[in-house]
Design a protein that fits this description.
mainly alpha, 10 helices
């Protein structure tokens, strides 16, 4: 598999930038710089400075910062404004402990109500994931894939809790894939097995596989964070 950075070629150079709106360019550029450690935890993100550097108005930059706040990569400080939050091992451990408790429950509930069109949608998303080498796009497709399998449970309280946790996990997944792109291939293989389990409604296998999948991802993310911290310390 060809290794790519989270930014992908789509935001590199003027040709790539023309294919994106100013907001898309801003969010992908800033997200990538945080994931790659070029913007570090504690760094202030001044809208005027970012707008000049990205050659755009402050409006798309402000929108991009709001998105980064929702993703957990940035927070707003009363005195300092937008600040890079960074990615921490304690945070990701908490997120994945919760997910490993709730998502096997969701797998079981979804088995009872999943529709053929849900499986077909998940299969189509899986095909897109197999075809892309763009880490950010793969991460978005990954969330959509699992959402498709659980679409019949969309209105449940459990689904809303899991969506919040999955959204917060997105930046960590992107970081792990940037640091270890081979994990994309491993995850694609696991998703293929998941589709088979949902097709035959194998509840026990789906519960076990869901927990194992999350545990393996957590281990990779922790290693990626440790590697990023080590690199930052070496460059300090």
């Amino acid at each position: 598999m060809k290794s790519t950075s989270p930014a992908s070629a789509s935001v590199t150079g003027t040709a790539g930038r023309r294919r994106l709106t100013a907001y898309q360019y801003a969010i992908e550029t800033l997200r990538t710089e945080i994931l790659q450690g070029r913007l570090k935890a504690g760094d202030r993100l001044r809208q005027d400075d970012l707008a000049r550097r990205l050659d755009m108005s402050t409006t798309p930059v402000r929108e991009a910062l709001r998105t980064l706040v929702s993703e957990g990569l940035v927070f707003f400080d009363v005195h300092r404004g937008a600040v890079v939050r960074g990615l921490t091992i304690d945070d990701v451990n908490e997120l994945y402990r919760l997910r490993m408790t709730l998502e096997p429950m969701m797998a079981e509930q979804a088995m009872a109500t999943i529709r053929e069109e849900d499986i077909a949608q998940a299969q189509a998303l899986h095909a897109e994931m197999l075809a892309t080498t763009d880490v950010v796009k793969w991460t978005e497709l990954n969330q959509a894939f699992h959402a498709a399998l659980w679409a019949s449970q969309d209105e449940s309280r459990l689904a809303h809790l899991i969506k919040t946790l999955r959204d917060a996990s997105g930046p960590y997944i992107a970081l792990s894939l940037y640091m270890r792109p081979v994990h994309v291939d491993v995850s694609n293989q696991e998703h293929s097995k998941m589709l088979d389990e949902y097709r035959v409604r194998d509840i026990a296998a789906a519960r076990k596989h869901t927990e194992a999948h999350l545990d393996a991802t957590l281990r990779i993310i922790v290693k990626a964070i440790e590697q990023t911290e080590a690199q930052a310390a070496a460059n300090a």
